[in-house]
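Page 42, continued from yesterday. The earlier attempt failed because a stray header line got pasted into the input along with the sequence. Redoing it now with the clean sequence only.
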Amino acid sequence: MCCLHDHITVPEGVLMIILPTTIADMKDSDSVFFIDLYVLKLISGTLYFSACDVDIDWYIPGTTTAVTYSAQPIEREVLKSTVDNRVDTTTIRISNATDEFTSALLQSFDFRGSDVEILQIAYPGSLSDPEAYNYRFLGYIDAPSLDMSKGTFEAQLKAKLPNLESCRTVMKSCNAWFGDSEECGATKVSITSTVATGSTQNVIYSAGLGQSDNYWKNGVITIGYESKKVISSTSGSVTVEYPFFSAPEIGTSFTIVTGCDKTQTDCSRWNNLANYSGFPSISLEYIIKT
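This time it went through. Structure tokens are written below.
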């Protein structure tokens, strides 16, 4: 399912990120190795990248729809996660950011806040299995910059769900990605439906939602190239945290998936407390000077 590039053209003077391994080298070994896949959901469209020297034909996460993850030299810093720094962050740098990639970025005008998913698949075992993957990171773009002289794009990525501080204790949220079969164990539900009459930028009505009140709470609804967090729902509507760019037209197709805010309360809602990996209460030290 992979097709090898003949070469990657690098304009003169452009900074090129050198990959530590290539598919050609690793295919000669007997060991299984892993590839990071990137999903960037910009306003102008969704970009799919593989952090290696070949295009990877794989699936849109959570679906059986195959897409091509284009080979792109990507450098990612180590994920920073501490109790004191309550928001998980990392930084990515993409070299050879020209042509289609640059065009998509420019069309998105302000793409801060755009969703980013980083997945990891095993080569070649995952290529024919849409469920054989793990999430490495799920967040959004912050502080983006594009250096046309070097052909590089750089951005900080921040996790969507920061850990929470409350009064005299710190709550460290669950570190498992909702629906991950190895660490979470809960079943992620996804449906596709259409927008109904009365929908606005904040409230989407649909006859195909079903389920009880707040079943879709903390999930994500995607209409076109925009994904929004659901803060409440009924059997016929969902309310989003931030408004869509414009009110969707009646009959427009959308996808909605269940989610979790990584607290014990939400984990209990999915009957999954046995797999909860957060810490409800971490004491803080206070020093009082007199």
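Notes: The longest strand covers residues 134-147.
Reminder to self: strip header lines before submitting.
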